Amino acid sequence: MSQFFQIHPVNPQARLIRQAVEIIRAGGLIVYPTDSSYALGCHVGDKHGMERICRIRALDGKHNFTLVCRDLSEIAIYAKVDNSAYRLLRSLTPGPYTFILSATHEVPRRLQNPKRKTIGIRVPDHPIAQALLAELGEPLMSSTLILPGSDMPETEAAAIRERLEREVDLVIDGGHCGFEPTTVIEMSEGAPRVLRQGCGVVDGLS
User: Which domain holds residue 79?
Assistant: First the structure.
């Protein structure tokens, strides 16, 4: 049975944030709000957590997992970023974007795209997500909460808890946080290009 925390979406309660991070560090899988939608998250080194996400979302081996980072300096640890990529990242973060970048050796191989050795990177603009990342001190391995048979992310925490209460360890209710996934930008193969248009607006990219 999952736990259920109601956390203020603007001023997150520090006590609940600490408890949520304790669950993550103990190998827990959580549902948490971002600036685009609700997402699943676990510790970056948690292989079992990744397997649980794959099972919940019915994902195959081609899925690009995302490392949700606190800021640009953390991105550089896990992804190869040249000067032009850095300028684009700086202009769009934090925000509802996922960037596909070449992974560094710090990224576990199981999280990388098996053929292209890439990883999704994200810096969310949401107080609860940022508070979790600050307390955790490292990225969350994450995936948008889109359930099998649906094209859109889940939006209501109570409904998520009812459906996934035996599949996850914690559902964080941060209120309504959107229902459109991030805009995905491919940046590992030359000029950046939009792979999926989501809620993040991008000018000048095709």
Answer: 3-196
Domain holding 166: CATH number?
3.90.870.10
Q: Give the predicted TM-score (pTM) of the model.
A: 0.93
Q: How far apart are CA 163 and CA 42, in angstroms?
A: 19
Q: Is residue 203 part of a domain?
A: no
Residue 206 lies in a domain: no
Phi, psi of 50, deg, nearest 5: -60, -40
Give pLDDT tens digits for 93-113. Answer: 999 999 999 999 988 888 888
Q: Tell me what percent of the chain is helix, strand and coil, each rounded to the nearest 5.
A: 30, 25, 50
Place of tokens 């939009």: 194
What region, left, alpha or beta, does residue 66 occupy, with left being phi > 0 and alpha being psi -120 to 50 degrees?
beta
Q: Looking at the DSSP assignment, which residues form a beta bridge with residue 194?
A: 185
The answer to whether residue 147 scores a pLDDT higher than 80 is: yes
Q: Which two tokens stand for residue 103?
A: 């992974």
